Amino acid sequence: MRARHAISGWLLLLVALHALVLFAGFFAPYDPTEQDRNSPYLPPMRLHFVDNQGHFHARPFAFAVKLREGSFDQYEEEGTRALPLKFMVRGANYRLLGLLPSRLHLFGAESEKIYLLGSDAYGRDQLSRFLYGGRVSLFAGLLGAGVTIVLGLCVGAAAGYYGGWRDDLLMRLAELFLALPWLYLLFALRAFLPLAVSPLEAFLLIIAVLGAVGWARPARLVRGVVLSAKERDFVRAARGFGATDGHLLRRHILPATSGVLLTQAAILVPQFILAEMTLSFLGLGVPEPVPSWGNLLSGLQQYSVLVSYWWMYLPALIMLPFFLGYLGLGSELQERTEAYKIGS
Amino acid sequence: MKPARGNCSSQRILFPLLFVLAASFALPTAASPPQKSSKDELLVVPGEIGRSGGRLVVALRAEPKTLNPLIAADAPSREVISAMQADLVHINRPTQLTEPALAKSWKISPDGLRYTLVLRSGLKFSDGYPLDADDVLFTFHVYLDEKVHAPQRDLLLFDGKPISVHKTDSQTIVFQLPKPYGVAERMFDGWAILPRHLLEKPYEEGKIAQLGALGTPPNQWAGLGPFRLKEYVAGQRLVLERNPYYWKTNEKGNRLPYLDELVFLFVPSADAQVLRFQSGETDVISRLGAENFSVLSRQPGDYTMLDAGPGLEYNFLFFNLNDATEKTPAEIVQRQKWFREGKFREAVSAAIDREAIVRLVYQGRGAPLWGLVTPGNRRWQDEKLPHPARSLEKARALLKEAGFSWTAASIGESALLDSGGKPVEFSMITSSSNADRAKMAALIQDDLKQLGMRVQIVPLEFRSLLDRVTQTKEYDACVLGVVSTDADPNVDINVWLSSGGTHLWNPSQAHPATSWEAEIDRLIDEQKYARTFEQRKKLYDRAQELLWEYQPMIFLASPDILAGAKKSVGNFRPAVLEPYVLWNVEQLNLKNNAVNATR
Q1: Residue A254 pLDDT > 50
Q2: What's the Rg (C-alpha) of chain B?
Q3: pTM over 0.90
Q4: Does the CB of A73 have a partner CB in chain B at under 8 Å?
Q5: Of A97, A203, B176, B412, whose CA is between 20 and 30 Å from B149?
Q6: For an interface test with B, which of A122, A198, A288 has the most B Cβ atoms less than 10 Å from its Cβ?
Q7: Residues 4-43 in B contacting A (C-alpha not used; CB under 8 Å)
């Protein structure tokens, strides 16, 4: 009972977070590709409730900032000009879920822009980029992990269950895939592809590449579990009663791999989001100016960004609840299967 | 080591030679004494007097490929070689003018065909072996030898005919040119004079191009530069030591260089170089990006950061204007119809916000660019070139004139359509390892979006980018940059000439594809043989104006040369020409306490 409750907790968290990302157009205040060339690397604006005269305002506000004279990235707050935060404002065009055209945003300010998470090198709103970027990264990560797990499961189960030459063949293949120099293969792949890849093509490509690269490890893990599961007494008994291979796999053996697979999935999603960053660097990822979490993090590869603009770390920090959600869900699911096994 | 000590005592006597040297400029070459002088004629260089001793540590981005000036093509090799070798006439990096080096004087015949150079007397290679005219003859013989494949060889050919070199005595060399050459004595800069006593035998055996590996034993390698080889540790460092026979002195008459050792560390990434510099492991840093420069300037440390002003790097956007072959994909042929339209290119140029590039990419440490010659090249910059501000209205008007139209604005921006109703979409390739250019591309993409063009940025690994531009020619547009190695624009002649391999928008043409390219070819050829600077400048200015008129290259911006050094480094005066910081390496010195580290 306790375990069931926890699952719904983690699930709720993940559903809520994914909804944020899915409805990015509404939650994000601005167009993620819109540059504001007069405010590069603007630090996050602080929301205030009390103004300089000490008056309390129910509506939070930020102070307008201006670039310090002769500087590139040093700003100072203008204590006199307040930008009150407005809710349900009309702003940049977007399509809700890619379908419904709309201009409604959860919040915004009237005359000037409010940067709650600061801005990047081109003065683009980090919060909007984070929310929109999640659409690409989370779903590429999820689908990539899904493809990987399914492939790994099939190959691993086949190798472990049937054994013999099939096992040898599949496992040697898996070893080959683990040993391949992927970086160079990706270079070669890039050369074969047409020069310009649209964001959608890039997205599908990322999933395909992630799936193709990742299947070997879960396949080996699954094979191990299957090897031990198929020697269990109840499996032998079922076989003795004349159960078919399909039935044995479906009913007795594959359920035993769920724990391993779920943990793998929970690890793979964050890992693939990072892999997407590498792909972006090779020109295989999502092209500029479309945001992705990989693109957001890649700025941190530069030393100067690392030491000068602390708010560039923020996307990494807000990714944590997402990853935590996956890990939590994975371990709870695993616990539940264990509990079920002990109980049976 | 022994000859080194013997030399120190003799150099005091040489001090009065300063005026002899100055006088020899005015003397015609025939009047210079033919017999070998018993005294050494050293070059006295002005500058603050430094302390002798100590070691200076510098970081290189990569391990140099070779020490051999005949085959060196990469920047780290050139940087190391410039500290170990010397040329007959040298271009002073800060003034960008020529000054005497191994040759104490030169004379050009009235017809501009005969250059007579007189060597300093008493010159010795870093192994103590004396230099004479035969070494110079040997050097140019080797550079000209086709079998050696020296990359600079083309510069000694005039319409395919080589320059001829002979000596009149052991100090005097005559260069006979097939045609007058506008570059004049500047052409002698950068030709390292080679030690015949070490290289003649390998040359005759055909092995000279294999020499000069970094692991060469120090006693088998010599040059005329301020430093000589001492030690090489693969993957880590190259150590050079003071050349005791160097031919320059300071104003007090002490032989240069000041430093005992010059150490090159191999530090592969720019960020790692910054960290090494910050931690005090290296003494100077150059080739800095604006971001790292401001990080270093902001954090107080025991170093000085200097902005030497705009350098000679020019960044530009160009479109694929190559002739289509049967292999060219149909989409590219289709898009080339836009690219070939002069007004289209002009519109793109008008829409680009160059000021924003300078501000956002270089943090203001750079200059917007409208022509190939950068503001850092003071003598050759064309002041008459227009510098129009960004104008989207003008860009739209130009596109309209050229028959383009726009879709009605629905959601988002309206799209640009060509006369056939096709939306204008193309890709722009850029090097994935160059963050600055990737940023420029992102800004241009946004600028062009406002004209309704959909541009996709494709970051490519640098080699595959070059392959696309020069070999397969399968690309739409490209953002690239070139660093001129000298202020004289002739170093970029292969960019200008339609037959040149780096005439990027349409390289290595058999015949100029357009009339304006033919005209540029003619102007550049003419200036090559023009006699005076003014004549050449006029022709170059005209070529630049043509380039501006037709915009095959849309110039963007030029970054400043940024450098830094520990406060203890004396004579630190970075120049905008390569090697930015080490051009006066013989004068660099370590003040007070820093010296005793090596004692």
Answers
A1: yes
A2: 26
A3: no
A4: yes
A5: B176
A6: A288
A7: none
**Per-residue pLDDT tens for B436-494?**
999 999 999 999 999 999 999 888 888 888 888 988 888 999 999 998 888 888 888 88
* Nearest neighbour of B432 by CB, restricted to A72, A196, A283: A283
Length of chain A counted residue by residue: 344
Pure H helices in B230-386: 270-278, 290-298, 330-339, 342-351, 354-361
Q: Which A residues in the span 26-65 are in contact with B, Cβ-Cβ below 8 Å? A: 33, 35, 37, 40
Match 């899904």 to its residue by tokens.
A146
User: What are residue B438's phi and psi, to 5 degrees?
Assistant: -65, -40
CA distance A188 to A201: 18
Does the pLDDT at position B413 exceed 90?
no
CB contact under 8 A, B291 and A195: no
The span from the CA of B443 to the CA of B434, in Å, is 15
Q: Which residues of A touch B474 (CB under 8 A)?
A: 195
> Cα–Cα distance between B290 and B406 in angstroms, integer?
39
Other Cβ atoms within 10 Å of B495 Cβ, number: 22
Q: Identify which of B271, B298, B459 has the shortest CB distance to residue A302.
A: B271
- Residues 416-445 in B contacting A (C-alpha not used; CB under 8 Å): 426-427, 429, 432, 435, 438-439, 441-443, 445
- Tell me whether 0.90 is exceeded by the ipTM: no
The span from the first CA to the last CA of chain A, in angstroms, equals: 15
Across B76-100, average pLDDT: 90
Measured CA to CA, the distance from residue A261 to residue B3 in angstroms comes to 76
Does residue B200 contact residue B228 with C-beta atoms inside 8 Å?
A: no
Give B-chain residues touching A40 at CB under 8 angstroms: 359-360
